[in-house]
Amino acid sequence: MAARKSASSSSDLLLSMKNIHIKGKSDDKWIDIINGVDLDLNRGEVLGLIGESGAGKSTLGLAAMGFCRDGCKITDGSIQFDGMDMLSLSKNELRQLRGHRISYVAQSAAASFNPAHKLIDQFCEAPLIHNVMSRSQATEYAIDLYHRINLPDPDHFGFRYPHEVSGGQLQRAMTAMALSCRPDLIIFDEPTTALDVTTQIEVLAAIKDIVKEFNTAAIYISHDLAVVAQMADRIKVLLKGDEVEQAPTDVMLQSPSQDYTKSLWAVREYNRKEQKIPPQTEMPIISIKNVTAGYASKLDVLKEVSFDIYKKRTVAVVGESGSGKSTTARVVTGLLKPRMGSVSFEGETLPAGYQSRSRDQLRRIQMIYQMADTALNPKLRIRDLIARPANMYLGLSGKALEERVRELLHMIEMEPDQFIDRLPSELSGGQKQRIGIARAIAAEPSIIICDEVTSALDQLVAEGILKLLDRLQSELDLSYMFITHDLATVRAIADEVVVMKDGVVVEQGIKSKMFTPPHHPYTELLLGSVPEMDPKWLDRLLDERGKDNLGDAAIAKMQNQGLA
What we know:
Layout: E1 13-26, E2 29-42, E3 46-50, H1 57-63, E4 72-81, E5 84-85, H2 91-97, E6 102-105, H3 109-112, H4 119-129, H5 135-148, H6 154-157, H7 167-178, E7 185-189, H8 197-213, E8 217-221, H9 225-231, E9 234-239, E10 242-248, H10 249-254, H11 259-266, E11 286-294, E12 300-309, E13 314-318, H12 325-333, E14 340-345, E15 348-349, H13 359-363, E16 365-368, H14 372-375, H15 382-394, H16 398-411, H17 416-419, H18 429-441, E17 447-451, H19 459-476, E18 479-484, H20 487-493, E19 496-501, E20 504-510, H21 511-514, H22 521-528, H23 537-545, H24 551-560
Parallel strand pairs: 3-8, 3-9, 6-7, 7-8, 13-18, 13-19, 16-17, 17-18
Antiparallel strand pairs: 1-2, 1-4, 4-5, 9-10, 11-12, 11-14, 14-15, 19-20
Helix pairs in contact: 4-5, 4-7, 7-8, 15-16, 15-18, 18-19
């Protein structure tokens, strides 16, 4: 197996980016994306890049590879990697570096793997292309890395296809693949954003071990401050392409110097006022009774699930990926018929399938989806996206429909004249999610199912969405079923909490009770897996649980003990 490369330079400095200016083309005009930012990185050091959406984090991280997305260009500055001038290298020379000495881990592993090839084949591709090792050596190394990062059945794991493993396992496999040539630098671009808390712990632990063991330098890009605190030696804060400040992680957490950085810290403090507990005589808006459901001939995904949602209250449904949260939503909306049990709306049993429900029953239960990018038709303008449910369910047309669309845009705090004729591609992620909210309330529903609506957003934008949902709930007397794996979001917005695992409700109750010990062991596992704004939190957690007692392993242990 090839030995790890080392530079002949006596300096520990690996990457030096000076006065970087990057522009992007928009409407035939070049606009500034990065404005004169400097970045230095030593061997074995991890630099955290944080900031809200549009800050330039990913653009700067990709520039460290000498790469710009289509429509962007580096207009000024210098990039030195191990003494080489990246901006003067030929395309062939850059190809020799990328994947070999510099590698990249994307946010969405599912979108980054080729679904037609086994994981082991994709791992071996870079070592073979770069002549780092033979196929047999690469296979041996892959299995060794799968063992190191606690993947299940590591001797055979790589012989599966991407769709045959979970999201967390795939993210760890991508981290292993980035290490296939033992690079000097890895750029991690939001690698845990879409993962539940226990899976995130597994991925973070794997990344931290790998960086330490191989003395690999890393740029860790994220909008989750608590996660960055676990990974980074230093933190650099960006805002609209400008550097706000930079400091060692412990200094940055304890005493950020700039108001913008302090505002990022304050986002985690948002907490909606808990609503009054409804009287026992009040009828729930939605009542889910003993629902058992599954797909095709597979085993049941939901097993006798029961809980109620009352008027003007928010019930957060939490649990890991595969716990049955979204499947429950599909049953409530009639997209999936249960094998057993029922769903009632204001005391009336709903038909199991949406095709058999009345137009009014369909109108009163609406949904907002996690990925606004895929939920909004890219060919329709904002006016048409919002107008459709108002026309279909309420019969509005002509001037009345136009006025209603404008009213709804005002309600979601978007200026109608500025946005009504735009396409979804012309909006930010947070703006698209607001359009999703407007489309849902256009039907004048009684309850909205919010399926991971903030998980893909940075913390400042997510806070704005949560505050908007809170205001709309008060103004429109809405109820929410809020599906999420983010317990910080649960603390911020929920009145009641339903904890699910493997299709079963393991615990439920009002928020104040659910966040107060004693907890069900699985709830305890979830609560204990939420990163804290303390750079030593992950190390303490790993010491307490043991590296072989994380995520799936921890749950399996509880199951063996009869606790879960």
